[in-house]
């Protein structure tokens, strides 16, 4: 890790990080590409690959960690559990297929075809499982299809994939730090993570109720923001203490503070402070809305620091691109990543074009895939070659679906697809 | 300086800092006291004085510096140069009296009455010069007097005092680092600071024009925020490179991005790219409004980190409060700080009660006074005793005026004061 920067150097570095992320992100958006690709490119530009101006100094890394925790907090807030209930069994089937197939294909490909180690192969499989809710939402919205039945199915499946992906990340993170993967170990991790996943939203919901009451009594938007961010960081530290990655804390806090989240206590059940508890655990859409409004600028500002640092931490100059092994790894991973997710659309009995639409919409990996790559790289499990191939895979699978879906819907335009 | 924290420890520390700042700030506001007093108390609670949980680790210090730069950016945005022109000569007279009197009284008191060193005495004088625009604005607004003529005069004077205070801070900061105060040295500092003060807003205004154009073309609020923060940090680093404190960069950028700021190029003047320059330098209230909306949550979140760290850096346990010298220093400074500002209301020929109102409204030192204390302490010029006495003076002079003005206006209620 690089030494701490002086305040002046830190300010200049941060100014460069934000300027490059802002301009290249905007350029990407201009070209119809997700802005995150531009932010990664900014990191590659500023890092050792090209200019060599930015190194991952402690304060920058800390700001990036705050950024990714806040990003997962936002993903959690956008995750609507009731959506999963509505689209029901179809979403579950697509989610499981969209999780198992890419994981299995990625693992088998890395382990048997490329002779990578067990740990590395597991990370490769894990990195291919995620589905970016943000990007799928944007894709359907951009195409004017966000009310269609296939969009409902995909959204439910993406939600579930996110939870599965985060649990997988927790298991792999533990494995990475201890070096083993025993059944008891996995069981303990799954137990702790499930305990955290089940209890943290309850605790976060209680915290949210208290914060909401305080902020309302004092009519202080600053107080709301400060207390929410404080809670998010506290839950992230708690997640870490329970053996899960810090981001799970942000995700759980976001889940609990999201608009649709409420915990109903059965009317017959008598509890101490029952009325207060019922009030604290009820849905509070106004509060969720206020939290989203106030935290959004923070996510906008700090999430790019994370993506830029992902780019910085990749020294693409040291990758032997012309090495046939690298090229074949990249080609193989892209094919497996596409095939695994695309196939998940075909587990449902639906018209062929809807199967294609669902499968293609599941393909974007987005930020969760990148978090796998980043964690694997910092744990020393993914060397520069594998990191670069995975990053390129994430980039390609994130880039492709918007174009592919656009073409699909144009091809099928004469025969109207689903209700809108 | 403390060693870097692990991510988990940093998250817990930040969570504690924000929780304490939020709760004690809200409690202060509840009691009718400026929230900043609560945030300082949070630092005293978490720091070595009481709990000893928080030390000024590098990343915390960096976040605090970002916070104070953003705070001065907001102060700059709130600074309306045209207001100064309207209230005119009256404001200038009050500002000069409100700058010179407290500085002279503080310096003389510290140097001759308490035998403090030249450097320390200059810092003591400097710390007493500031007038908190934010607090004076709030005081008049809370009392329903923000349209009164005395409010106009005070606002203009507070603006000018801010600029004078920042220049004084720059001179003293240079003095603190070199240990001398030669006429040539002061001249050079004033030249550089004036050059920065005159040129930075022009440059920042040009940058703002570019950012505004980019953000409008891409309809991306995230881009606006990222580029503005990037510019603020770049100007702060530039200020530091020119020998001025980093906060001056934030202030200059804020001034340039404020609603009332525009630079008119005379119609007769022919310049290369004249039309583009004229467009970039015109006032852009919509853009200023958008910048304020997007940066406010950041200021809300990071400025308290600065104030908490001010509290943390004060070890009040090590102060000999019962020492007659400490008690007498505190009492003397409070009297001088009050007298110097209060007297500034009497340089104008106005009804007696308006003179009192103006003088009292000039008293609150607020954040700029604290920045003097913090800088003096980190430069080793203010020992714990003087820091504590100054901090208490800033706290008392910040606390008193809201109550005093309330009493004054109640007493005088029967005879209506000024237009409203």
Please sum up the structure shown.
Chain A is 75% helix and 0% strand. With 420 residues, chain A is mostly helical.
What characteristics describe this protein?
16 helices; 420 residues; disordered C terminus; homodimer; mainly alpha
What can you tell me about this protein's structure?
2 copies of one chain form a homodimer. Chain A is built from 16 helices and no strands. Chain A has 420 residues and is mainly α. The radius of gyration of chain A is 21 Å and the shape is globular. Chains A and B meet through helix 1, helix 3, helix 9 and helix 12 of A and helix 1, helix 3, helix 9 and helix 12 of B.
Write the SSE topology:
The structure is a homodimer of 420-residue chains.
Chain A: H1 7-30, H2 35-46, H3 58-78, H4 81-113, H5 118-127, H6 133-142, H7 149-178, H8 183-218, H9 221-241, H10 246-257, H11 274-281, H12 285-312, H13 324-344, H14 352-361, H15 366-378, H16 384-411
